[in-house]
Amino acid sequence: xxxxxxxxxxxxxxxxxxxxxxxxxxxxxxxxxxxxxxxxxxxxxxxxxxxxxxxxxxxxxxxxxxxxxxxxxxxxxxxxxxxxxxxxxxxxxxxxxxxxxxxxxxxxxxxxxxxxxxxxxxxxxxxxxxxxxxxxxxxxxxxxxxxxxxxxxxxxxxxxxxxxxxxxxxxxxxxxxxxxxxxxxxxxxxxxxxxxxxxxxxxxxx
Length: 206
Description:
Layout: H1 7-20, E1 27-31, E2 34-38, H2 44-53, E3 61-69, E4 77-85, E5 90-98, E6 104-105, H3 114-125, E7 129-130, E8 159-164, E9 169-174
Parallel strand pairs: 2-5, 6-7
Antiparallel strand pairs: 1-2, 3-4, 4-5, 8-9
């Protein structure tokens, strides 16, 4: 038995979502066999409540909420909500756009699990959610600077952490690239430049 939903069925579902939402859902697209709904940030609570409660939709599970960074756009962030309807065996993706300064409304009142998802999006991207009950970092360490999944975040980060034996505590310092690190980009089978010996190579020729 196949549970594949045709593009025609997804298009009909998208058209119905737009028609039934009274302007909360402004558009849709079907791409790669998936339905994407577009919602203004201010209307996201209304749109998700409709998709959860209306019998023709019944998307009663929020599977995931994540951020996407497009730094070249004025509204650089997409907030993406992945919904599942077990009643109708369908999935849908809902997208809103926002910027660094404008919060999107929390949807934790619609889907309680969104509370932690939104905290993760805040921690990783700096996306803010208004009326969130506890919007603070979730995955990074205390005192972490910046938002590590933004595309303009440096790969090395801004600070490094080490244990200081003299101070008997963990200390944070600006990242320093050690001068002795050699990035020769050679295959380990070809060997590294200089006198550096790759682990295991000390047995070579023994």
